[in-house]
Input
Amino acid sequence: MTELVRLTDVIKVYQGGITGALNGVSLSIEQGEFTAVMGPSGSGKSTLLNLIAGLDRPTSGDVAVGGTDLGALGEAGLARFRRDHVGFVFQFFHLLPNLTALENVLIPAQLKGRESADTRGRKLLETLGIPEVAERYPAKLSGGQQQRVAIARALINNPTLLLADEPTGALDTHSGDQVMDLLAQLHREGQTILLVTHDAKLATRHAARVISVTDGKIVDDARLETTERSASDVVRVRSEETSR
Amino acid sequence: MSLKYGVLGLLAEEPLHGYEVKNRFETMLGGTWEVNIGQIYTTLQRLERDGLVRPVGARGDRGKLLYELSPSGRKALVSWLAQPDSGPQQLHEDIYVKLLLATRVANGGLPALLGRQKRAYLQRLRDLNQLEDRARRDGRNDLAQLIRGALLHTEADLKWVDELAADALGGKTE
Ligand SMILES: Nc1ncnc2c1ncn2[C@@H]1O[C@H](COP(=O)(O)OP(=O)(O)OP(=O)(O)O)[C@@H](O)[C@H]1O
Ligand SMILES: [Mg+2]
Output
């Protein structure tokens, strides 16, 4: 197993913040892992993801992704790192309203100047089950479709790391399940995924590792057994017979 | 209680031998309730005594005896099905008593207890998720729905433990 993400003693205090949003977080994530991050509102989950994505910098401590110390990168270097290595999916999609679905998907690719980006963009939309929305504008799409467009955009550059911050938070159960099944599929194909969610059912369904954050600290880091267990080891209907 | 009605329900479909009742009951429950053949025979005898089932054909080798539902058995089944479960909620797990004792016993180690319990619930959630998937793959939507119920219960247990942990830390809850 190769380590992909390493945080060492990370502290984040926002400007004007009295207490830190992260208060000494150390964490290591292996390549290919599907990790869920859970915790109460305001506990620092999004802050954690933003620091790993290089969208923001820690007040102190180190963040390294794929061996690169993000603290050593300047603004341009950080932007390049994000474009080349990180896919980010947000709760509210963050699609640009005046671009079509395909154009949204291609935003990061155009920056990278890829020849076949258009083809790849269309292929991604097809893989995600929404080839028909390519020329449509976000306002004309359902939430689930918008989120799949956002996932395509996150994947366009084959990111080393996919970060998803409550990607199903704004979706109904059915679209949410579809989005999660897509993430699970990507994980099976080797994608490293870090997912923030409030839903423990979803977290444990897909992630074999569940990190709990409270008040800016990791209070639990559970690696779950993934071997299949027999029904009677998991749930018993009325095991004690009381009938007389 | 429900083994009795489980047997009645299966016999409502067609007459069955004791071992068929056992197999069908266990298949219906998808491995979440195992019964031994003795329990089935005792139940059948009791049901026969109460006039809810009756043997079909000649009484011979007990294992081969075929049982069918009587009209009063069908009535009993239908009225049981129509009745909501309104008894007290059953809390079978030790955690409830552990919680009360851990706050009384010096060094009861409540936070650690809750932490370990949380992990156990997370693991159970994962196992239940797999079980639900398997049931759906097997075309057993009824079983998947039962497991879904267990999942939601465990999710509630997890939320409860999170609340207790937040209280124990004197911190804020969500
Ligand atoms: N840009 C910011 N400026 C100042 N404070 C911030 C900023 N972003 C977050 N915070 C504060 O930092 C703390 C952690 O916030 P964060 O958004 O990481 O929490 P979260 O766990 O993602 O919460 P939620 O579940 O509500 O999304 C909170 O107290 C929040 O108010
Ligand atoms: Mg957040």
In short: Chain B touches chain A at residues 1-4, 29-35, 39, 43, 92, 115, 118-119, 122-131, 134, 146-147, 150-152, 155, 158-159, 162, 166, 169, 171-174 (CB under 8 Å). The helical segments of chain B are 2-13, 18-28, 37-49, 71-82, 95-104, 110-137, 141-168.
